[in-house]
Amino acid sequence: MMLEVIATSVADAKLAEAGGSDRIELISGIREGGVTPSFGLIERVLDAVSIPVHVMVRPHANTFCYDEDDMRTMLTDIRTIRELGAAGIVVGALTDERQVDEGALRRVLDVSGGLSVTFHRAFDETVDQMAALSLLARYPQVRRVLTSGGKPSALEAVEQIRTLDRLSRELSITLLAGSGLTVESLESFLRDTGVSEVHMGTGVRRHSDALQTIDPEKVKAAAAIVAGNAAC
């Protein structure tokens, strides 16, 4: 069982680690769903914490369909993120037909080296999530898929997430469930879906406000719930 927490600053990263987070997703633009953070921020966060840091690679929040300039920007960012020593990247791309952009994915994987790759919530906009999951599972570098089951909140998609998790286990890829999770809802969500990894952002921030800092007590409570479910 793993708890991943979104960080947008060095302070966030330190608080997430202090609270017991297993992994950090480092982003900027939290209200836009996350975009690539600055290289300076990545470097400082990697210096500040010892838990794995996965970095968002998203050149803008306009769309998940990328032109050649967008792709070149992403590839340059990935090379630098790899050189800085991050554990992984969080990335995704779609075609105009709302399918996984396999050409873009191959280009990303070609420059990713040993980075662990998470396909982000672009997955939730695919026209067929089962087909998309099966496609992504064919690429060993893609270790996990972040999803809310196609809904704004994962809490609204418990049945779909349970189905996706069963398929992911058959395909040997990890489902990372997130969006809308709170400390109060986490235990029942884990029980009802069976997922092994969860992703939390606003739900572990002060006053449940995206622009507030992380609350280490909320992270600690969430981590205890995750650990408790792992022991069951």
What can you tell me about this protein's structure?
This protein has 232 residues and is α/β, with parallel strands linked by helices. It has a single domain (2-231), classed as TIM Barrel. 42% of the residues lie in helices and 16% in strands. The protein has an 8-stranded parallel barrel, surrounded by 6 helices. Strand 1 (2-7), helix 1 (10-19) and strand 2 form a beta-alpha-beta unit. Helix 2 (39-48) packs parallel to helix 3, helix 3 packs parallel to helix 4 (102-112) and helix 5 packs parallel to helix 6 (158-171). The protein is globular, with a radius of gyration of 16 Å. It starts with a strand and ends with a helix. The mean pLDDT is 96. Pfam families: CutC. Belongs to the CutC family. One of its GO terms (cellular component) is cytoplasm. Keywords: Cytoplasm. This is PF03932 family protein CutC.
